[in-house]
Amino acid sequence: MDNNLIPSVREVIGENLKKFRESKQITIYRLINETGLSRQQLNAIEKGETSYTIDSFIKYISALNLYIFFGEKNFIPTQDKPHDFDDMLKSGEENKPYKEE
């Protein structure tokens, strides 16, 4: 099978983000205003191109009121374990591996 016909993970994510955005009737111009990203950057995300940064990606999903879930295989979120992006950020702040002065 030709690997060029198989969409990359980035392409699948981008396609789903675009479908979600459109289902919420959010225009690309509204995202430009809310994220500060250029049209080219937003299009790169939605097309699954490799020319965007994780910071741009996070701005994009934040503007759509989405978050990233990170978890280990077979992980079941509980009250005492972080399960969304905000909780993980708070947990990271509390458990810094270095001491600030």
Describe the structure.
The protein has 101 residues and is mainly alpha-helical. The protein has 2 domains: 3-63, 434 Repressor (Amino-terminal Domain) (Orthogonal Bundle); 68-101, no CATH class. The chain has helices at residues 9-23, 28-35, 39-47, 54-63, 85-94. α1 crosses α3 (39-47).
* Poorly predicted sequence stretches spanning 5 or more consecutive residues: none
User: What percentage of amino acids are in beta strands?
Assistant: under 5%
Instruction: Tell the overall outline.
Output: globular
What profile does the largest beta sheet have?
none
Identify the CATH homologous superfamily of the largest domain: lambda repressor-like DNA-binding domains
Domains, number: 2
The count of β-strands is 0
Order of helix and strand elements from N to C terminus? HHHHH
What is the CATH class designation of the largest domain?
A: Mainly Alpha
CATH architecture of the largest domain: Orthogonal Bundle
Question: What is the arithmetic mean of pLDDT?
Answer: 79
Please work out how many helical segments DSSP would assign: 5
CATH topology (level 3) name of the largest domain: 434 Repressor (Amino-terminal Domain)
Distance between the termini: 57 Å
Structural category is: mainly alpha
Helix content: 40-55%
Radius of gyration: 17 Å
